Amino acid sequence: MAFIDYYKVLNIPKTASEKDIKKAYRKLARKYHPDVNPNDKIAEKKFKEINEANEVLSNPENRKKYDKYGKDWKHAEEFEKQKQRSYQNHTGSYQNYGQESDYSDFFEQMFGGAGGFSGNRNSVKFRGQDFNAELHLRLSDVYKNQKQTVTVNGKNIRLTIPAGVENGQTIKIKGHGGKGANGGQNGDLYITFAIQNDTKFKRDGNNLHIDVDLDLYKAILGGAIVIETLSGKIKLKVKPETQNETKVKLKGKGFPVYKKEGVFGDLYIRYKIKIPTNLSNKEKELFTNLAKLR
Q1: Average pLDDT estimate for 61-73
Q2: How would you classify residue 30: left for phi > 0, otherwise alpha for psi between -120 and 50, otherwise beta?
Q3: Residue pair 265/208 in contact by the 8 Å Cβ criterion
Q4: Rounded CA gap, 255 and 137, in Å?
Q5: 92 near 81, Cβ under 8 Å?
Q6: CATH number of the domain at 1-124, out of 1.20.120.1200, 1.10.540.10, 1.10.287.110, 3.40.50.300?
Q7: CATH superfamily of 127-197
Q8: Sheet holding 189-196: strands in order across?
Q9: Is 167:110 a contact under the CB 8 Å cutoff?
């Protein structure tokens, strides 16, 4: 099996920061995603390589092992222990089982391949590899609790995503990572949320913000308007002589607070007064008379 340089896969230097890795991964994942490249086997292969590289380099501990041991980074602890036991003549050899693949044994294990190693290690327990995944959702999706099914290593995992989850937030699903060896515990699954705002509201934590157009006459005389919130339409009173850029807070009409059932942030409305255009001669005359009165 050929060595895969994960830094080259993501097109980043070995000195890249965690932020650089995340940025490079997202850019390439969007470019080679199967939804963007249907029935393109080359793009599919590239997409798998990109995900594999991100799995390793986005985890600081795994990245350190990879930098030292290359494709055998998963067995770093075993190597270190073997070194310590070398004076007792305990050595181990590593090999890959099954059909050769274009991908590393780490990736084959993630997506259903068979990989392993042999040696005098029956008494050593190995914790399974942690997996990382990115789940794309819309802002309107996470206004309420959301049920999703994700597939990891051929296994479907049913998740209930609490309302109010943040963009970039990561949650841990214990025991759903790689399988442990020799009775070792399974790794964990870490899911990072990429949330696209498909609404007209701007989110700031649990609060929402929106600009609302207000005609000049209603701003001067007052009245009522109907606005839409994420929970439905509401009728809102406008005070007479409302000024441009006036802000109004609607308590509890914002975004749900993560893992706090029934608790919501606030909705902030900013009025944008629209000046009438294409005035008729009569309207201009009335405004002229009004100006004289003022």
Answers
A1: 80
A2: alpha
A3: yes
A4: 15
A5: no
A6: 1.10.287.110
A7: Urease metallochaperone UreE, N-terminal domain (2.60.260.20)
A8: 131-138, 189-196, 170-173
A9: no
**What is the per-residue pLDDT across 178-200, written as a single tens digit (0 to 9) for each?**
888 888 888 888 888 999 999 99
How would you label 176-215 residue by residue, b for 16+ Cβ within 10 Å and e otherwise?
bbbebeeeeebbbbbbebebeeeeebebeebbbebeeebe
φ, ψ (nearest 5 deg) of residue 180: -75, 160
Residue 263 near residue 256 (C-beta atoms within 8 A): yes
* Closest C-alpha to 223, from 211, 213, 214: 214
Tens digits of per-residue pLDDT, 113-154? Answer: 444 444 444 557 788 888 888 889 999 999 999 888 887 777
Quickly list H helices, the chain. 6-10, 18-32, 41-57, 60-69, 76-85, 105-110, 216-221, 281-293
Q: Provide φ and ψ at 148, rounded to 5°.
A: -135, 150
Q: What is the CA radius of gyration of the chain?
A: 29
In the chain, which segments carry CATH 2.60.260.20?
127-197, 202-277
- Rounded CA-CA distance 277/91 in Å is 86
d(CA 94, CA 217): 80
